[in-house]
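EI: anyone free to look at a 294-residue chain?
SC: sure, send it
EI:
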Amino acid sequence: MNTKLTANAWLFMLCLSITACHAQKAALGKTPSQLPSLMTKSVTEKAKVMVLGTYHFRQEEHYDELSPENQAHIQHLLTALAEFEPTKVVIEWEPSRSVKTNEAYHSFLQGKFKIDTLPNEVFQLGFRMARKMGHDSIYLFDDKPPYIGSLDGFTFEKLAKYASQNDQGFYNRHESAISDRYVHNEQLIKSQNLYDNLLLRNSPEAVKVDAERMHMYEMRVGIQKNWMGPDWLGRYYQRNIRMMTNVLKSVNPEDRVLIIVGANHKWVLDDLFEYTPDFELVSSYDYLLAGRNK
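SC: here you go
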């Protein structure tokens, strides 16, 4: 055998292989640096929005939000949030209640409407924050779409009964992990004072846990059957999209909007505001953390 010829043949085949690879890459398209730039919409004037997730006051029995200690924590919380300098305060009530709510708020400003016996976060956080910032109005943004289609007459008991009969072993594959994590986190959060309770609920970790929980359990019910679980989560997205657009309709680019809402809404609202070009999302956690030791 001619060794020189064999070596030349090998070199020739290698060159062909390299040439083929380059040709294949060229056929697949240009490198990212060679691609044309897409036109994107650049919005320079954006309203700043902060979503404060909270538990619903007076639903956790070991917290008396009206006690002197917790009133001090609430005042501390409001001081921390005031650093954001909100121009609008938005609460989790439906806009259909705006007239009566603002009548109550104006009476509150005049000292005629007392909230000393009203623990609801709408009053203890919303009304007090708006007054602290000198606002003349309160804004409402909640919306509850009807249960229709597979969700007609929906209850969680109905969902659980259907799931146990039709999706056992699938819808609850993460149930033990969810339960263990939920019990641990709730015990940890509820062991904190009121300020740190809300600080933890607004942490990136808590937001991720809330989002994961809703995609690990209920969503898995009735897939390719009656679609009850996916439809339930779809309705939740629909509700929050409507809430976000209620805010969208009522803001100006120069606004700084503080939203006070149940913590389980925070993960989806944060995403919706983040990807709506009219808004710049501001971290509630960062402000609460910065104000914690002041």
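EI: The chain has a mean pLDDT of 91.
SC: 👍
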